[in-house]
């Protein structure tokens, strides 16, 4: 990555992988990466029809979709290997795949923890994140790429909750991964950061709580102290572009919170 890119093309010439790119924040980021001149964008997800549609709609010959279940490390390795084989390098890994809960019948408190559901959430949100960081970093080191790895954490990565404890634990794990990986990979010039969204209007949130669109907007707005709008995936993708680009060339191990001030309310 270079520092001579025009300000409106922050990712000019870069090759990027976005896991969870078929919907929500991943999809918004894929579109934003294209706007900022990424040379190749590989969208990875398990939602094949949605992922293929997003790749086609971006309209670039170098935007492709690959099926990848991040809980299967071999699929993650293959995703990275095929990307490098097709495009010669990997500059950016945005690991955004996540799930809110594994069952619609259990909100996962300490006293009624369903450990099989816990295992599923941790497999996606924590284990899958490790696999993405591991294999992206290995190819960056091998090819001497001073790349950027961005993970999706959450505002709950630094607080406790009375429900959805498996989800909260998984996001604490992501923050621990980012802080530890950045320490090790800094020696190779590789930056590792995470973006921590607050309550964002995404399909994941709608599925997690079962809210209708109007109700969802009201809830999202109520969680922010910054009034005048609703936190949307595009707002998060702005932060990801910053962390992926040379604008953040000395940011590493950073937890970039995008929550409209929600965490200020929690901290009171």
TrEMBL record:
It comes from Lithocarpus litseifolius. This is Uncharacterized protein. PROSITE patterns: ADH_SHORT. It comes from the Eukaryota. Pfam families: adh_short_C2 (PF13561). Gene3D superfamilies: NAD(P)-binding Rossmann-like Domain. Transmembrane segments: none annotated. Belongs to the short-chain dehydrogenases/reductases (SDR) family.
